[in-house]
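Target chain:
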Amino acid sequence: MRLKRIFLLVISGFFLFMLQPFTEVKAANLVKVENLEELTKEVTSSLKNLNTEKTIQYVGETENITQQVKKIIPEIIQKHDEVAGTLKSYKYQIMYTQDNAQLTYYFTYYTSKEKSQKAGQLLNKVAQQIMKTNKTDYERVKAVNDYVVSNTQYGGKTQDRYTVYGLLTNKQAVCQGYALTVYDLLTRMKIPVRYVVGTSLGQNHAWNKVKVDGKWYNLDSTWNDPLPNRPTEVNYNYFLISDRVFSKDHTWKKENYPVAISTKYDFLADTGSTIQVGNLFYYSNSKDQHRLYAYDIKLAKKTKLSNVRVQYITYSKGKLYFSNYSNGAYLYRIDTSGKNLKKIATRAAKNIAIKGRYIYYQSGAKMYKVKV
């Protein structure tokens, strides 16, 4: 039957241009569908496979086809987070008669099939290593956050900065790359996770919601990455935070995502430098001039350990090592009980890390080490 109408719909928000009318596709392998459910399934499959073009023959009632087709991709984006994070723009053409329609879709992505496959191989290795050394969902979520923050510098100049591939290979990404990497890693570990889009401080932003011990939380690994970049530091101000606290500087369509009401880890929103040892978090309290505190997550109890102002906290064998901002930012140590404060280096110290028997720290442009 001759197609009597030609409609061009361009849905993108990124570009707009006209296409010339085209003739009906006669290819033997043309996909045919009989209802909107089958059509949605074919479009979803194409998007997940990063296909750039797809033509589908729709055999069925077409009275409201333009209105119905218009809703398909927005609904797919809402239901499939991997599509929301990788699809850059799309457009489609419709030619139809009363009982037949031909749709041709054109997609562009932030990544490619080749890069996506390579990123997937790298992610599998990372996920296996994390699962090997971390047994609970909480430990694995924390390890994923730490991995992404420790191995990434915020920024980048190429389109790869929006992708998992860019984060893993270039070690640079923006929020989209951070959130997609967290999403992909936790998905591989079968931990419930969502890729969330919204705004923060008036700018477009992306982060995650993750389910731990039966409860949903917000996780923003981008904002857990210190600026300027500090390779030895991971922040936790946006780690497993409730909607109540998170919404102070993040905005999203709450009806589209799980609700996060648990406040178990909200104390982390007020931390500076932080390290966890068993059930205890040792941290600089940003609400008390960054003095040294401990928080027991089992007892939900906060304890002030010392009046010294601390940064770059690390731990070894019952002692905390840190830069003492109450005294020249020199390298100090203290027992985890808060007793026996001692200066162990007379240089201003930052980027403190313990490897084997030595504490490594940076002072000015040079690196130094002292025995633990």
